[in-house]
């Protein structure tokens, strides 16, 4: 079971704007803030996402093949999350739509630092 995922950032203020919008659409907000980092989610349960400047002082970089998947309530929310990502400094990695078989519907995008995310719904 995943408790939370942490991604690196080189511009916490810019990235925070992006994640504040995404988290609000998912019905959660910030539950932890500290110098150099912020976490979004529900402190009482469910997986969360954190953003931090790397502790070693080096630049944050993107993991090749790494992606965080955000579970949406329905297809309309997938569409809204994709639009919010683009409106808040993110970039498109795949417009909302069906993928494969079994009712998997997803949209792919990157945050302002280049970390890859998707929003999805099954069925």
TrEMBL record:
Q: Which Pfam families match?
A: Glyoxalase
Q: Name one GO molecular function term.
A: lyase activity
User: Domain VOC, which positions?
Assistant: 1-122
Keywords of the record, alphabetical order, are:
Lyase
Report the source organism: Novosphingobium marinum
Query: What InterPro entries does the entry give?
Result: Glyas_Bleomycin-R_OHBP_Dase (IPR029068), Glyas_Fos-R_dOase_dom (IPR004360), VOC_core (IPR037523)
- Tell me what this protein is called: Putative lactoylglutathione lyase
Q: Which domain of life is it from?
A: Bacteria
């Amino acid at each position: 079971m995943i408790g939370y995922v942490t991604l690196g950032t080189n511009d916490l203020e810019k990235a925070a704007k992006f994640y504040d919008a995404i988290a609000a659409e998912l019905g959660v907000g910030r539950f932890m803030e500290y110098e150099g980092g912020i976490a979004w989610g529900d402190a009482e349960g469910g997986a969360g996402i954190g953003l931090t400047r790397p502790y070693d002082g080096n630049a944050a970089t993107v993991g090749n093949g790494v992606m965080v998947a955000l579970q949406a309530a329905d297809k309309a929310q997938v569409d809204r999350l994709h639009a919010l990502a683009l409106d808040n400094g993110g970039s498109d990695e795949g417009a909302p739509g069906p993928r494969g078989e079994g009712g998997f519907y997803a949209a792919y995008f990157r945050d302002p630092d280049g970390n890859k995310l998707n929003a999805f719904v099954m069925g």
